[in-house]
From TrEMBL:
Keywords: Flavoprotein, FMN, NADP, Oxidoreductase
PANTHER family: NADPH DEHYDROGENASE C23G7.10C-RELATED (PTHR43303:SF4)
Cofactor requirement: FMN
Protein name: NADH:flavin oxidoreductase/NADH oxidase
UniProt keyword NADP, yes or no: yes
Domain (NADH:flavin oxidoreductase/NADH oxidase N-terminal) ranges: 3-342
Gene3D superfamilies in the record: Aldolase class I (3.20.20.70)
């Protein structure tokens, strides 16, 4: 039976444990480049023991960014900054992963901490957003959306492939497509955003065509030895939107097109979500477990899994293969080390670089000298997550 600290092998890649840092947009880029901030922030999490480390949604085109402060990999000048990040992550024992995305009708924003609203296309920091149909997201994202032509869709698939080629050159070893949270892929999948009458709209098969073609385009340049995964918006939480059953069926098709693991998420494709579960512990886990069982594909999930016993339990119960942590990774770069001590893992400090691990394990007069609560031994049965 695996636990949170069992290595995880997928294709030719082996992670040192089942803990991944979930992608989080940081608004720290200039000209779409990764810089010292990213090397520091991501290197610290790798040094803290995360097995797989995602920076953030990385845009495949300039208008695929969330804001002008967001990172991309749409030109060769951007490769160098990514390379520094991947080499730091590898030096610290982690595996670097990239999440490629396009924000579609939710782009052209100001950062959340400045209001998160959309800027008009003629604003110096804004642009014309695109989508499958000319339907604005609404609310504080009110501006007209350009309906992508078939040629433009083909161009986007070429951009995905070009971005994947650069990602490989930059040293990433795991590639995820971001098709959740109301961004472009999620818009194609959802009847709320996609009203097309050609073969990219209407039936479920047509609404998944954008995904399958993108997977095909990326797989041509992304080697078989490295995992290709997708974060899928599996439920719009709206009666007229994507239903979870749709996602289960479409992931089956995606598997046939080279998908190695499904990273399940939901919501944020409309402000009118019905009963959003975002306050519930581990609410994605049972949904992901259903995909694992019915589609027979490895799965990952995030959302409220920051309590070590819970994260360990869902791996031990073999409901999911990887735990993704977002906010816990922001709050505590050493979450894996802390969790290892909480769960009674022997030699928790072997997760940090060898020299300072030695000091923490050996140079101690009192537990308080290392600034962590005394490790408690994991005796009880893992908690079931409701
Ligand atoms: C600051 C911040 C930025 C995020 N940016 C992204 C992103 O770029 N791509 C993505 O797929 N999810 C993004 N998310 C969602 C997280 O990856 C994660 O799925 C979510 O926070 C739930 O996990 P948690 O409960 O461990 O935080 C973001 C979340 C936060 C808090």
């Amino acid at each position: 039976m695996p636990d949170l600290f069992s290595p995880y092998a997928l294709k030719g890649v082996t992670l040192r444990n089942r803990i991944a840092m979930s992608p989080m947009t940081m608004y720290h880029s200039v000209d779409g480049k990764m810089n010292d901030f990213h090397t520091m922030y991501l290197g610290a999490r790798a040094a803290g023991g995360f097995g797989l480390i995602f920076p953030e949604q990385i845009a495949i085109t300039p208008d695929g960014r969330t804001s002008v402060h967001c990172a991309g990999i749409y030109n060769d000048d951007q490769i160098e900054g990514h390379r520094k990040v991947t080499s730091m992550i590898k030096d610290m024992g982690g595996v670097p992963a990239i999440q490629l995305g396009h924000t579609g009708r939710k782009g052209s924003e100001v950062p959340p901490f400045e209001g998160g609203y959309q800027l008009a296309p003629d604003h110096p920091d804004g642009w014309q957003c695109v989508g499958p149909s000319p339907i604005p997201y609404g609310g504080d994202h009110p501006y007209p959306v350009h309906e992508l032509t078939r040629d433009e869709i083909r161009g986007l698939h070429r951009s995905y492939a070009a971005a994947a080629r650069r990602a490989l050159e930059a040293g990433y070893e795991w590639l995820e497509m971001h098709y959740a949270h109301g961004y472009l892929g999620a818009s194609f999948f959802s009847p709320l955003a996609n009203r097309r009458t050609d073969d990219y709209g209407g039936s479920l098969q047509n609404r998944a065509r954008f995904h399958l073609e993108a997977l095909d385009a990326v797989r041509e340049v992304w080697p078989e030895r490295f995992p290709l995964t997708m974060r899928l918006g599996s439920d719009d939480l709206h009666p007229d939107g994507v239903q979870f059953d749709d996602a289960v069926q479409a992931i089956g098709w995606m598997r046939e097109h080279g998908l190695d693991l499904a990273d399940l998420s939901l919501g944020f494709n409309t402000d009118a979500m019905v009963d959003p579960p975002m306050g519930n512990a581990g609410f994605m886990v049972d949904r992901a477990a259903r995909v694992k069982k019915e589609v027979g594909i490895p799965v990952a999930a995030s959302w409220n899994l920051g309590i070590p016993e819970n994260a360990d339990a869902v791996i031990r119960q073999e409901k999911i293969d990887l735990v993704l942590l977002g906010r816990p990774a922001l709050a505590n770069p050493h979450w894996p080390v802390w969790a290892a001590r909480e769960l009674g893992v022997e030699d928790a400090f072997s997760l940090v670089p060898r020299d300072w691990g030695w000091w923490l394990a050996n140079f101690r007069g009192h537990d308080a000298s290392i600034g962590l609560p005394p490790a408690k031994v994991f005796e009880e049965d893992p908690r079931e997550i409701a």
